[in-house]
Amino acid sequence: MARLDTQSKLEILADAAKYDASCASSGGQKRSSMGGKGMGSTTGSGICHSYAPDGRCISLLKILLTNSCIFDCHYCINRKSSNVRRARFSVEEVVQLTLNFYKRNYIEGLFLSSGIIKSPDYTMEQLVGVARTLREVHDFRGYIHLKTIPDADPELVEAAGRYADRVSINVELPTKKGLAELAPEKDEKRIEGAMGAMRHHILDAKDAKKRYRHAPRFAASGQSTQMIVGADGASDGAIVTRAKGLYDGFGLRRVYYSAFSPIPDPSAVLPLKRPPLMREHRLYQSDWLMRFYGFAPQEVIAATDDKGMLPLDIDPKLAWALKFREHFPVDVNRAGKEQLLRVPGLGTRAVGRILASRRHRRLRLDDVARLTVSIAKVRPFITAEDWRPTHLTDRADLRAQLAPPPAQLDLFDTPRPKAA
After folding, report:
1. Which listed site, 23, 79, 173, 348, has its alpha carbon 20 to 30 Å from 138?
2. Tell me, what's the pLDDT at 26?
């Protein structure tokens, strides 16, 4: 490996880290250096390319320790056989970069992952060494997210949780078959074993905190994972089922989805083009339905087509409502929270506002319109004091009316997915 300066390494390893989506967090431990001790702070809000509830954009220094790797996973641009420029940071270089970026108010913390160098244990020692140096030597109080390695010694993985706010272990692919075909050096049982051990440590730390006031925190933001979408033949239904199993089995805070992106010198077993980015977006929406709207995975799967794929032109909540119209219309003045959450176009905030407002008066359609973003999507599925959809809910062309109209693409313009 040629000797590179820090700037060159940063360009290579920050670019290599862009494929990892699981770098947002919530619920982290609140720390501050306002008392004159230590450096940095964290608010526990959403972090890394996202926005806090008060509108602030919060960011992390998101890098790999190295993009060299002894594994040869077909879908990974940093795999052993990939023809890419390699670089590697030392522990001290990552520590100084983090401190210098923080002092310049560029970041609020660090997201650190790595390819596997020498061995899983050696790599994990390096990752933990960065977090330990920041916390113990420099008293850094900002946010730290470490990507852990399931093949590493369990004591090293546990050490990551003592210094990081959040830890994550990637399941990589949604099915055991896909993992065996595209990442034969990785094992589903080892991955799930490491995730199970991490959950055990997190629960033990929470229990100790209840009993002992000064008990140390352990990965206060919990653990997350990421799976690649579109690299194998897994359907959306299989992905939804897998995600629900991960949430229930390991108490994850988030499951992230990353649409497969073609890489230089691809393996012959990979698809030739990436899946639509909208597919990734629909999977996130289905994730929200299960986490915040009370949908069971079987109900989300019921909204898929005969191949198990979610529709791309409409969101999964609307797809479910169109398929099961017998549940509608819903009376906004009498329905419970669970029924209102299933109405297309009504989010959790809108439902909360409806429940609060109807304590004082019976709601009319105009009242609902003021509490929602788009009354056009809501109207066919509700009744109000002055509104009945009559035959609108049962119209055969209702989907065509509610789906976004097709857009004419410019010959020389690259289409971009609209923001959620």
Report:
1. 23
2. 47
Structure tokens at 348: 């959790």
- CATH classification of the domain holding 174: 3.20.20.70
Same domain assignment for residues 212 and 354: no
C-beta separation of 334 from 343 below 8 A:
no
Closest to 66 in 3D by CA, of 48, 80, 50, 49 = 80
Tell me the pLDDT tens digit for each residue of 160-195.
999 999 999 999 999 999 999 999 999 999 999 999
- Do 329 and 235 belong to one domain? no
Q: Do β-strands 382-383 and 61-64 pair in parallel, antiparallel, or remain unpaired? A: unpaired
Domain that holds residue 136: 6-262
Helix axes of 316-323 and 277-292: crossing angle, nearest 10 degrees: 70
Q: Is the dihedral of CA 156, 157, 158, 159 positive or negative?
A: positive
Token pair 């002092």 in the structure block, residue: 103
- Domain stops at, among 216, 242, 262: 262
Between 7 and 24, the more confident residue is 7
Q: How far apart are CA 420 and CA 408, in angstroms?
A: 20
CA nearest to 9, candidates 101, 112, 88, 98: 88
* Total domain count, the chain: 2
| 276 located within any domain | no
Question: Does a structural domain hold residue 409?
Answer: no
Whole-number pLDDT of residue 32: 54
Q: Could you tell me if 258 and 321 lie in one domain?
A: no
